[in-house]
Amino acid sequence: MGGDVGRLRAAVVGTGLIGGSILLRLHEAGLRVVGWDPDPATRAAGRRRGLTFPDDLADAVRDRDVVFLGGPLPSLPQTLLTVAGLTDDRCVVTDVGSTKAAVAEFAGAHGLTGRFVPGHPMAGAERAGLTAALAGLFVDAAWVLCPSVDGLGPFRSLVGLVVDVFHAHAVPMSPGVHDSVVALSSHVPHLLAGSLAGAAADSAVRDAVVRLAAGSFRDGTRVATTPARRTADMLLANRAQVLRQLAEVRAALDGLAEAVRADDLPTLVDRYERAAAVRRPRPESAPPVRREFALDGDPADELAFVRSIGESGGHLTGCTVAGGRVTYTGVRPADAPA
Amino acid sequence: MGGDVGRLRAAVVGTGLIGGSILLRLHEAGLRVVGWDPDPATRAAGRRRGLTFPDDLADAVRDRDVVFLGGPLPSLPQTLLTVAGLTDDRCVVTDVGSTKAAVAEFAGAHGLTGRFVPGHPMAGAERAGLTAALAGLFVDAAWVLCPSVDGLGPFRSLVGLVVDVFHAHAVPMSPGVHDSVVALSSHVPHLLAGSLAGAAADSAVRDAVVRLAAGSFRDGTRVATTPARRTADMLLANRAQVLRQLAEVRAALDGLAEAVRADDLPTLVDRYERAAAVRRPRPESAPPVRREFALDGDPADELAFVRSIGESGGHLTGCTVAGGRVTYTGVRPADAPA
């Protein structure tokens, strides 16, 4: 993989909401892209939309430069193994699963870290399936990539696709940091939404609660309507981090509840003022970052640099390879350690 | 109060977001309306917008048919007492506070239940003040009214205003049921939002969490930016019900967390499927309700009927008084007890 993006041959395996949106965007951008889904009706629906959807997975991934793996989270390791067996070592593979440590470990155990880069485009919707897919789903979204020390080449190519084709923000992270962050930024919020909606569903005053649902209730229960199996898979794939971050949120909830019980106005006001800071817009003037590495240098330095960008709250805005050097551009929050 | 709505003389005392929006709509609808706020700058800002804002509260409420009390929740009982002392018994008074049992009890202790009808228009925003006010804020919103057995006349007039002028849904309830319902439909969601935002603000990976904030995180923390004092006042004014409903939500959260810990996929899927039901749109075909009462009948029957509409998840769509009879129209959920 590499060279002119428009000449790339791509495949998307598993064309639900996320995979389908990737497929639509690659098609719209003029790449030669093929879709495949285990569901024959989805393949037929894709063909009716003018997309190439062979019936045989081997036909879909043959001679591809890059393959995106979508589909249900628990299916991804096996899909990776199958696709790796059907393609050669020059074919870059990435996935879109919402947790990363397990699939990264699986890839390591099967000797695939040199061409598999775990990924997680952070966009979604409560709906599901190819019919819900949108070519523009990833514009300005964060797209996490988890490079390994022996997979920097594929990582660089994917940064180019993420930025130039999807107009998303490339966020490099280690798999472990990713899983810890999304536990708090996505998974625990799903638990809170499920508990609020669940308590309301079982309440003696349920109909009146629904009738008087304030914006806070509607917001706080929205993701409870995500397909239940998808939510459950996501939570179970990140159990340790979900339970760890949930403990932090419960401690904060205990503090608020104790202040309510004690009729303690100053503590409540103080806690809400501190909490609100996390919603304040960050300064637009995040300083730009630019770094070059020799392609024959120590890959650990390059890996540490790109991870530090994503793990400090920044993202990459570009990656170019020329003259034996790779140049990264990006931004990171003004107060992040350099 | 009564007769032609367009001839009504109204006042709004305390013109922040909610009071200010009431004032703007009454003005827009052509009523003769006067505003007052304890803050001289707010009065001056109101005058610059072409509204009538005397400096003296007594001038603002003199000879009014109806007075709406806005302003911070803890100030409402004293404001009620002041306004009641400045007006005569024909002047109907209502408030907009987000809890109702305390102010209803206060009105009873001061012999004001015959003309004070506790109210709660369920609309809002994270912003505050007259500058954030919008004449259309209450369109299609629920507007709770808590009539007493000796205050049905003022209640009927207010239903007319809520429906015909504000185009809101009039939801009659007892103060206690209101406070129980809003604890779950509004106050506990504020606690969850505060705990999620608070945990993120204190997190070691805070910047990355903000960077990867999924829709679930943004939704789940939105109301954490409500002015902190307003949120704290609301929670403390409804302590007993907030803590009771929080216990229900925590029990649901415990159930989800235990299923995650036990890697129990079927239980998680089942709980999320049940929880999602509370977000499903209710059938459009809620059966209409129409009931007449003789004005000289037993007011307890009329009170029980109107409360049953709101407490079962329905609302009133109209109230007309003619020929010694009052006629209510409304809707209630199809599966509510008749």
From TrEMBL, chains A, B:
Domain Prephenate/arogenate dehydrogenase: from-to ranges: 8-290
InterPro entries in alphabetical order: 6-PGluconate_DH-like_C_sf, NAD(P)-bd_dom_sf, PDH_C, PDH_N, Preph/Arog_dehydrog, Prephen_DH
Gene3D superfamilies tied to this protein: 6-phosphogluconate dehydrogenase C-terminal like domain (1.10.3660.10), NAD(P)-binding Rossmann-like Domain (3.40.50.720)
One Pfam short name: PDH_N
Record keywords, A-Z: Oxidoreductase
UniProt GO molecular function: NAD+ binding; prephenate dehydrogenase (NAD+) activity; prephenate dehydrogenase (NADP+) activity
Tree of life domain: Bacteria
GO process terms (BP): tyrosine biosynthetic process
Protein family: Belongs to the prephenate/arogenate dehydrogenase family.
Protein name per Swiss-Prot or TrEMBL: Prephenate dehydrogenase
Species the sequence originates in: Micromonospora rifamycinica
Origin organism lineage: Bacteria, Bacillati, Actinomycetota, Actinomycetes, Micromonosporales
